[in-house]
Amino acid sequence: MIPFVSSVVRHRAAWRRTLGCLLLVGGISCPMAASAQTPWERYLNDPVAANAAQVQRAEYSPGTESGDTADRLWEDLLFVENQVQAGDRAAFRLMLRLRQQFTDYSQISLLLDSAPGAFIRVQPKAYLEDSRQERAVCPGTASFSERLENRLGAQVRELEARLRALRSVSDPKLREARDRCVQMLDHARSELIDVTELDVPAVVPAPTPPAAAVPKPAAPKPAPSQNPKPKT
Length: 232
Prior knowledge:
This protein has 232 residues and is mostly helical. The chain is built from nine helices and two strands; from the N terminus they run βαααααααβαα. It is elongated and about 115 Å long.
């Protein structure tokens, strides 16, 4: 796998089996008596900033069937991903928090890593500010959604767009974080170019203009004779 570069692959059957009731107990819930909505469910029903701020974990109300929760969770995470890609800052912060919940589940982690990278293009300053607030170091900087799976040329162009966005941030307080993420993006872009046949033009120096013609110096006048003719 290319360093710093990953993409989401929707192998639902594989990760669904790993969730099961054990994960539901730790992060969501097993079948129990029905109860009120969780903060996660309230946000999904009304995705405003105030509701997003209340969510610390993806948890469903007791009574949710564990067999249905895996598919429901995936669809709900895709909904949050869509919010993030549209530039929703509250959804971006929420996704950063959810990344901590699912670090042990690779397919979900890939999905949660891809959305922050897309957020760079639309909100580069907010990306740096909120990542620092959530103590996340360049989250998803060079990760991609499944829409760019196996499209290496498109991935290169996406990284270039993210680089331009980050370099537009001029806040001195964010300079260190910006430069760190730019370095990671530059490295990821170089790695991708090495394994693709994409014709990425090199930076060619501007041609040197031809030198102006220099006029030839006029022929020197003959020096006066040192032996004047005698007077007659």
